[in-house]
Amino acid sequence: MQAFWRDAVEFLPILMNGVALTIIVTIGSLLLSTVLGLIWALMRVSGIGIFTGFSAGLINVIRGIPIIVLLFYLYFVMPELGLTLTALQAAILGLGIAYSAYQAENFRAGIEAIDKGQIEAAQAIGMGWWQTMRRVVLPQAVRIVLPPYGNIMIMMLKDSSQASTITVAELALQGKLIASSTFKNTSVFTLVALMYLTMSIPLILLVRHFEKRAGQK
Amino acid sequence: MIELSNVHKSFGKVEVLKGITASVEKGEVVCIIGPSGSGKSTILRCINGLESYDSGDILVEGARVDRNAPSIVAIRTQVSMVFQRFNLFPHRTALENVIEGPIYVKKEPRVHALERGRALLAQVGLAEKADAHPPQLSGGQQQRVAIARALAMQPKAILFDEPTSALDPELVGDVLSVMRKLADDGMTMVVVTHEMGFARDVADRVLFIDGGVIVEQGPARSVLNQPQHARTQDFLRRVLHPL
């Protein structure tokens, strides 16, 4: 146990560098996936054939490709097509695109859960499609969407470790590097696990808060 | 001000409106009665473009109703709708429900809309409920807020789609008395209803619809008291004397 604490004091500063990158990758890809997911969802419910079809097809393609393959594609293949990304850019873009499919399905479920009468009432006072979405449907859908959204945040935090496969020195990769150079596997990976857990706990509490609020109505 | 000529409408293979021709004059109160599934609500929903119709014409003040044309917005601000299940926005207070259309559709200044919104809530007897959210209100109160929301658009006509059918019996009176006051003030109203007493006392004209056609129409008292057609007689007997 004493050895563990000694290792912790020694490795923690290096691992914290990884934590910073983990947080950057998570927040960056969370924002990107939210924006993209909302766009796919709105296209899907727009009732315009070409948008609906495009969105449905795209979501299936994204869902059918493993995140790690998407990351390899962005980081190793895109340069051959003339688009060179830094590892961090590729990680945020890849995770953002991969998770946009799940965000879109979550948003769509929330939007479709809103009573049709709400949309009719908005139309009856002369609101157009976009205004109906913004003023009536989306504010009500948020309540429904938030608990699963929180779960997606937790999954994204953990899946940010996949960025290690394209050389982003986030928490998991920092751990692996320290472990392979010191052979202190137990200390290092226990620390890494504890640090992921520490970051997840606030999110888990947030989800619980969202669920309670959603259940009030 | 509202004219329907030979309006047909099908849902899939079921034809629900089989050539409806009718008109509503300015200031007139027209009640539409008939068995459920006869197409009563569909007529209202076609008038303000919540449903499309397959053939025929619907004109509101001379403008053709086409739910896919940009002109539908102008028509909807002139012809408001009150729904059976109120359809208030639950995330907004009573007052916010009332001012939503004036502010965000008609672009009225907020101060002006708020002032008028409060006056309208007072008019329907709910001045003290301005800050309540819909789930905190009874069904009758919600429907009166919905009527205030419709009035806030300063419409030329209001369509009522079974406005009291979802209410507990003791709450029906409050809503009907608000509607009666509107009629007395000269509002043009088309009301789909099962309240025969209201139709007899308030309506200028009654249309009896069955199977997607107007079976009988005329002054309220004559249609309700001396129906000519056998189907009207049968319907009224069932409604007025269910036992």
Task: Give the topology.
The complex is a heterodimer of chains A (217) and B (243).
Chain A: H1 2-45, H2 49-63, H3 67-77, H4 87-112, H5 116-124, H6 129-159, H7 171-182, H8 185-215
Helix pairs in contact in A: 1-2, 1-4, 1-6, 1-7, 1-8, 2-4, 3-4, 4-6, 5-6, 6-8, 7-8
Chain B: E1 2-11, E2 14-24, E3 29-33, H1 40-47, E4 55-60, E5 63-64, H2 72-78, E6 79-82, H3 94-104, H4 110-123, H5 139-152, E7 157-161, H6 169-184, E8 188-192, H7 196-202, E9 205-210, E10 213-219, H8 220-225, H9 230-240
Parallel strand pairs in B: 3-8, 3-9, 6-7, 7-8
Antiparallel strand pairs in B: 1-2, 1-4, 4-5, 9-10
Report on this model:
The complex is a heterodimer of chains A (217) and B (243). With 217 residues, chain A is an all-alpha fold. Chain A has eight helices and no strands. In chain A, helix 1 runs antiparallel to helix 6. Chain B has 243 residues and is of the alpha/beta class. Chain B is built from nine helices and ten strands. Chain B has a six-stranded mixed beta sheet, sandwiched between helices. Chain B is globular and about 55 Å long. Chains A and B meet through helix 5 and helix 6 of A and helix 2 and helix 3 of B.
Condensed summary:
The complex is a heterodimer of chains A (217) and B (243). Chain A is an all-alpha fold and 217 residues long. Chain A is 82% helix and 0% strand.
The chain pair with the largest interface is: A-B, 18 and 25 residues
* N-to-C series of helices and strands of chain A: HHHHHHHH
Q: What is the rounded distance between the termini of chain B?
A: 40 Å
Give the rounded overall mean pLDDT of chain B: 93
CA-CA gap between termini of chain A: 49 Å
Q: Helix count of chain A?
A: 8
* Beta strands of chain B, count: 10
Instruction: Outline the low-pLDDT stretches of chain A.
Output: none
Number of strands of chain A: 0
